[in-house]
Amino acid sequence: MPFWSDLLANKTLIAALCAQSSSQGLKIIRTWYKEKKIRFDRVAVYGDFPSAHTAFITAGTLTSGMAEGWSSPTFALGVIFSAIVISDALVQRRAIEQTQKALELLAQKPIFDSPFRGHTWQEILSGGIVGLFWSLLITFLWPF
Asked: How many Å apart are CA 30 and CA 135, to the nearest integer?
């Protein structure tokens, strides 16, 4: 059983997975609150509140920094990947959303089955807060 105990002892992985899962769960709960029905499809939709990608990468990066040190190569790689993921969620997806709208305006009809949407800065910030929360919780309270 060393595999499972080693996996559970990996605080960086646990924090990131908890942040991802809770962010996706919050999307379902938020939709239920607004629409009064449970929609599991909200998990697969791009965009929405909070950014699960940002929560995931933030929790992993911060936890690795707290566990291995702020000058560790692991933390440095986490910061690099965080910048890429957050930039993708905020800037590049927004550009794709605007391109989709322009194409559909030119075609005068919907081209895609579902709208492609980027994140707002508020969704990115809230994802970062979720990631920070899980990073602190797992770092200081996880028993393994």
From this structure: 23
Among 79, 24, 18, 13, CA closest to 51: 24
Q: Tell me how many degrees the CA angle 68-72-74 measures, rounded to the nearest 5.
A: 85
> Locate tokens 């807060």: which residue?
129
**pTM for this one?**
0.82
In angstroms, how far is CA 15 from the centroid of its own chain?
A: 12
Q: How far apart are CA 92 and CA 97, in angstroms?
A: 9
CA distance 99 to 78: 30
At CA 111, angle to CA 93 and CA 96, rounded to 5? 10
Closest listed residue to residue 40, CA positions, set 51, 53, 21, 27: 27
Residue range 2-26: average pLDDT?
92
Instruction: Please give the DSSP secondary-structure letter assigned to residue 69.
Output: -
